[in-house]
Specification:
559 residues; disordered N terminus; Jelly Rolls; 3 domains; 8-stranded antiparallel sheet; mainly beta; 5 helices; 9-stranded antiparallel sheet
């Protein structure tokens, strides 16, 4: 009889090993109460409170008798949920409690592992984020590689990923609270040292392969680890988690048939892109109150009407935001006289920028309907007051001057006198402007923030290669830092069309160079039989075609 029981146990282990792609299917089917009380019947894994001193401060996550649903996911509507309590660790970043699924079959360090689970976010303590899901490499010592953070973002939340750092490598788009989302967190093994990466897929397409889905990727350079467990951490995060599946393949983690997956690429969102505004609102409607746009709280900035939505957009060859509609700055619609002004502002970050963070704002502008002016301000970064009547701080102010049929641009940090203007260009030609802001410090008496303006950059070149069209702001060395968090477009006897706004952390993400557009135009103008040089002005950019080749005005060969 003893031999028979031993044989049955041995065969059971063989069956488990044969289905090794799926390590764990966890639906939290335990008695309501603390999660760490739970042990499966075969004791192949269990949830335990961390044995690390800093990870055992507070109460455990609780099991609650309800489940989460997500259409198409194999573990949808199954079992119960583990509830993370936002009160645990809300007062201190060092107060937390972690519970781990411990793999008793041995450490893994030669394969990638996926954890798919359902997440219903409820609340986040702060806008910088606290980690709530982790990959674990040790039971008793500090070895976490793969940290998933949740942060408050206005009335929503967002999640971010790192390998081990507290500086987030990439953030997701904002996620609705009290709504179920599907998350896939991958520890990607790579041969060699300190080169494993962690990826997170948010609401992936269940009918597509891993490669065809977009993801967030860790970029911090931490050492690798042997993967031993999966952890839930309470530290100021409110959420419900259910339907957990840990596996060594994408298909097994999601519970889908590999043969049913296709590799059609899903359009990806650049993690460095903060915001893209195409003004897809009702034509003729006022912009205020739509898409997060609001009016400045400064008393002097509240006269007249809000800018309105125009039917048409603007274009600039190769720029990656030329669809949608436009915003119209209209001096007549303001209904005010003189230089009293109306600001419409848009938050471009959910929290203050870190020191040395860089932000680029790219947009298209056309002044064909505007009369001559010696200089009017129409754009700036802004620090908004908290209530009506509060003063505002504006920095990186962009100006336009129009004489006859020509226009020029300039930038000043604050109220300095403009001494340098861009080269002239026809008034009725659309311009692409890129305004860079470097946050040097957060106080007015500390290191001064830095601003510059690029006018009609060559999108086939890098930022550094566009130095010739860059204007440094007058007064860059003055006025310290300012904790700027918004962009502002100002109506002050102004007639202009604004379109295609992209705010990003990098030059490339801001301009989103679309090579296919330019290549299509090149194919139209190239002529192998005609070797004489032909100049073409395409959306304000000059190209020279000779036979099957194309050059910029500087002589750089493009094709």
């Amino acid at each position: 009889m003893k031999k028979t029981c031993t044989l049955i146990l041995f065969l059971s282990m063989l069956v488990l090993s044969a289905h090794a792609d799926l390590w764990l299917e966890e639906n939290f089917n335990y008695a309501d109460g603390p999660l760490e009380q739970s042990v499966t019947q075969l004791e192949l894994h269990k949830w335990i409170v961390s044995r690390k001193a800093n990870d055992a401060l507070g109460t455990s996550p609780m099991v609650a008798n309800r489940n989460l649903s997500y259409s198409g996911y194999v573990a949808s509507g199954q079992g119960k949920v583990a509830v993370l309590d936002p009160a645990v660790g809300s007062a201190s970043s060092s107060q937390r409690i972690s519970v781990y699924y411990i793999d008793t079959l041995g450490a893994r360090d030669t394969m990638s592992v996926y954890a798919a689970f359902l997440l219903k976010p409820v609340s986040a303590y702060n806008t910088t984020g606290r980690d709530f899901v982790i990959w674990e490499g040790s039971v008793g010592s500090s070895m976490v590689r793969g940290r998933l953070f949740m942060a408050k973002s206005a009335d929503k939340v967002k999640i971010g990923i790192t390998k081990n750092s507290t500086t987030i490598s990439a953030w997701s788009e904002d996620l609705e609270v009290n709504t179920t989302h599907l998350i896939v967190m991958k520890y990607e093994y790579n041969p060699g040292a300190s080169n494993d990466v962690v990826k997170v897929f948010v609401n992936p397409h269940l009918d597509k392969t891993e490669e065809a889905n977009s993801c967030l990727v860790s970029s911090d350079n931490a050492t690798d680890m042997q993967l031993r467990g999966f952890g839930l951490r309470q530290r100021g995060t409110g959420a419900e988690i259910g339907g957990l599946r840990i596996a060594t393949t994408w298909a097994e983690a999601l519970g889908v048939n590999p043969a049913d997956l296709n590799d059609d690429v899903v359009p990806t969102v650049d993690p460095n892109l903060i915001l893209e505004e195409s003004f897809d609102y009702t034509t003729g409607s006022l912009l205020e109150g739509q898409g997060g746009w609001l009016v400045s709280t400064a008393t002097a900035d509240q006269g007249g009407l809000s800018p309105a939505i125009g039917e048409n957009t603007l274009s600039y060859t190769g720029y990656g935001c030329t669809s949608g509609k436009s915003m119209l700055l209209d001096s007549v619609a303001q209904g005010i006289s003189g230089d009293l002004k109306r600001n419409t502002v848009l938050p471009f970050a959910s929290d203050k920028l870190g020191v040395e963070d860089t932000i680029y704002t790219a947009f298209l502008v056309n002044f064909s309907a505007m009369n001559s002016t010696s200089g009017k301000e129409f754009f700036a970064y802004l620090k908004q007051g908290a209530a009506n009547g509060d003063n505002t701080t504006m920095r990186g102010r962009v100006m336009v001057a129009i004489q006859g049929n020509d226009k020029q641009f300039a930038i000043r940090k604050n109220s300095q006198t403009i001494t340098a203007w861009s080269a002239s260009s026809p008034k009725d030609e659309t311009a692409l402007l890129v305004v860079r802001y470097i946050n040097r410090s957060t106080g007015s008496t500390k290191d001064p923030d830095h601003f510059c303006l690029y006018v009609n950059p060559d999108l086939t070149k890098s930022e550094a290669e566009n130095a010739a069209c860059r204007l440094e702001a007058e007064g860059n060395e003055a006025d310290g830092g300012a904790d700027l968090r918004y962009i502002a477009f100002r109506q002050m006897k102004m007639n202009a069309t604004i379109a295609g706004i992209r705010i990003a952390k990098t030059w490339a993400a801001a301009v989103n160079y679309n090579a296919e557009v330019i290549n299509g135009l090149f194919d139209t103008f190239m002529d192998a039989a005609d070797n004489s040089p032909r100049k073409m002005l395409i959306d304000g950019q000059l190209f020279i075609f000779r036979g099957e080749h194309c050059y910029t005005i500087t002589g750089q060969p493009l094709r």
